Amino acid sequence: MCGIVGYIGKNKAKKFLVEGLSMLEYRGYDSAGISVVSDNIVKTCKTKGKIIALQELLKTNDIDGYLGIGHTRWATHGVPSDNNSHPHNNSSNTISIVHNGIIENYSKLKNSLEEAGYKFLSDTDTEVIVHLIDSYYEGNIVEACRKAVKDLEGSYALGVISSNEPDKLVAIRKDSPLVIGVNSDEKYIVSDIPALLSRTRDVYFLNDNEMAILTTDSVTITDYDGKVLNRDLVHIEWDLDSASKEGYEDFMLKEIFEQPLSVERTIGSKIKLGEKVNLENLKLDAKSIKNIFIIACGTAAHAGMVGSRLIENLSHIPTQTFLASEFRYQEPLVDKSSLCIFVSQSGETADTLGALKLCKELGARTLAITNVVGSSITREAMDVIYTYAGPEIAVASTKAYTSQLTIFYILALYLAEQTETLDIEKQENIKREILNISSNMKKILKCLDSIKNIAKIISTKKDVFFLGRSLDYITAMEASLKLKEISYIHSEAFAAGELKHGPIALIEQDVPVICVCTNKNLFDKMISNVKEVKSRGAYTIILSREKSDIDCADIILDIPDTIDILMPIISVIPLQLLAYYVTKIKNLDVDKPRNLAKSVTVE
Ligand code: M6R
After folding, report:
1. Residue 92 and residue 469: Cα distance in Å, rounded?
2. Is the Cα dihedral 64, 67, 72, 76 positive or negative?
3. In the chain, is it the N or the C terminus that has fewer CB atoms within a 10 Å radius of its CB?
4. pLDDT digits (tens, 9 = 90+) for 237-274
5. Residues enclosing ligand 1, CB less than 6 A?
6. Distance 467 CA to ligand 1 centre (A)
7. Residue 274 φ then ψ, to 5°
8. Per CATH, is 253-435 categorized as 3.40.50.10490?
9. 393 alpha carbon to ligand 1 midpoint, in Å?
């Protein structure tokens, strides 16, 4: 969470700081601020609210200089307010810092700093860092930072400047992302690559427990003891267009419509009819894998749930999916014969990263499925499969999900080839259908009118329920998450067979129940469940590829036909669109829903 930026160079810092923050606003938008070294002091301008509020404030603030840092906040410690906004400064306004992460021992540090006479102006954990640096400062900001970080417990990406040393920008990283951008006469720090793309595509990735000292002409990366470390410059292939709205009203809509293309990119040359699956450099010996654990959060966990069903069904390797935040604390039975797969769009989710580190300690083989090249998870895992969905900016994940599902289809086939649990004809059929996903997606993207009509109905409701069985149940969970996170309508997904064990008590007159009925084998059972809710007054919306024999639906939404196991990647799309249109009708900010952030880099 939170986005940080920093600039040192031959041009004025403010322009890049604000531009960079706008690109990082998806990481948090509770407040925003910048500090710039100007006329030998640190000048800070910060405010509660989105970047637009900061831009307004900057119109009346003279804050020009060549060294600066900026921050967009997702509040952890302390409510969103002007005082709790970053940057935080020492009392003489000579040192200023921005922070992404959580300082776990901040209360102990705060007590001892207060005893030493330091006055705190905010409720944040971050403010202890700036006073700590101040307490160690003896004319060298790098040395003061080096000493201060040794006292910190928790996670942090930090940008630090001092007006006493206007020729240096210090960047520090532990368990929170930080990237350094370079061009000939400017150096930058950012939490995420899109913030750099308008300036440079040449970057250094900072690793955990490392610092970087940036000047206009150089970048020096060291460990916390000052030992200089060599680092290769990485050239980023993305361009700025892929991180802009390209004429769509919102990033979410653009990303939904991009899915036929992003899925094609994900497939790339990994599957071809009549050939073995090609997962580039991945060399797994499926026969030596005793069990597979898939670990992720949120939407990525839903992709993992589909993934575990596919892998188990096709390759017969026992596979389970866990929420990363739970997995870490349940003493998992992972050992060196386990394969642990970590799914994360951002590659930065703190719980997923923590679980990955744990599995490494337990000796497991680790594989990351991520979208962001060079992200923390990709650097920790032994193997990586990139989804190549392109930058996903909207907080609600859409194209990353369908690309993650695509990888799972391919991975399950790859493993099944080795375990020899699937005959050639079935393998070829699955491949054929995977290659056809994109055109099925396009068909759905043409059905906007019926989806908009359903959205009108849903937008007036307080509660919405989703039902499904088997893979359709996972689609129901994903659809429910999408709807609640952006429209703020209470929604829940139930396994249809569980209804009569409790949830059916919630059904009353006109409550919408969206029933995902795409599984051919389970269709009749699903329809029985739909009838049960219909006879209790529910307003039923059915997603189905069977058009006959449905007499219990208020609305039927046709879904293109494919094989059962591929239905999740198709049937989720109208439900993504539904969440989108409901939110638009309610006039809410689709891309930046309240209380959320794109990248959850705190536990
Ligand atoms: O970057 P990650 O895939 O690790 O993020 C995981 C979740 O935070 C993310 O999927 C979240 O649930 C989305 N807001 C859902 O739309």
Report:
1. 62
2. negative
3. C
4. 776 666 677 779 999 999 999 999 999 999 998 999 99
5. 297-300, 344-346, 349, 352, 395-397, 481, 485, 599-600
6. 22
7. 80, 0
8. yes
9. 11
